[in-house]
Amino acid sequence: MRVFFLAVCSVALASAQPAINVSQVTHNGKSGDGAALSRDGKWLAYVRDDGDAKHSLWLHEVAVGQDRKIADKLWLERPVFSPDAKSIWALVQMRPGFYNLNHWSVADGVAKVAAQDVDTAITFSPDGKTVAFIRWAQDAPSRLLLLPAAGGNARELLTFKRRPGAVAWSPDGKEIAVPVREDDLSRIRFISVAKGTTREIRTPGVVDALVWTGMALFATMHKADGPGPSQVWMCAMPAGAWKQVTNDDGGYQRRVLSASADGSLLAAARLVKFQTGLEDLAAWFGNKDGGPRTNPDVVLIRPGKN
N or C: the chain end with fewer CB closer than 10 Å? Predict the structure, then answer.
């Protein structure tokens, strides 16, 4: 049963944007395939593109600024910390379009395979006992699956007509949020873990990445009808308004976003918009937000009070 609940998060005016602080962590222009914060915000994991279709996974101590390599020589994407920060989970491409879910011990870098055929970054239940993710299928509905973190069989919670790209577990463990784009409308669908029932809220753009903290929902979001960059947005729960957190000219990598448990610190991958010399012409044609955006680097965002 689906319950429509579309008026919870309205869109706030740009003047209501919270004050933020952004600090750059990486400076290589090659760190756009994933960034994850531990729940206490003390640790950051990020993926670096090393060329030749190989990536490396790095651990960064936020307070000290020191980096340590955890894994390399793999195609890695979208890392996530376990709730106790003792392991890092990420997607590993086995062949084009097919990913395994692996996890690495932070202490010694030992890797294990947790699941096969995983198509989105995972989200953990608050107790750390279960992970949720989306599995896509050719000519069939996508499936929201729950998998015991210690191993076992996954169970299906809900299906989707299209291919959602993100999942976020609520801090109280009762719901999982999934961004959907159906019938030319963008929404976030909330699914009851216990009952499988749903409710929805509208979003002011297409959501690519989503995290749910004690402070708010945070999302990377882009326009549905244009080439403009993705920015970070927030919506205070349960009855806040959508506010745009960032307004960078280059924007942010669409599927890279993480947060501390209290929402006081975010990690994202910021892009650089290169000047092509055709900006005035593009603006004249109504495409001032177009143009190439490359050189992703991981940044830490302190969004301030909502």
Answer: N
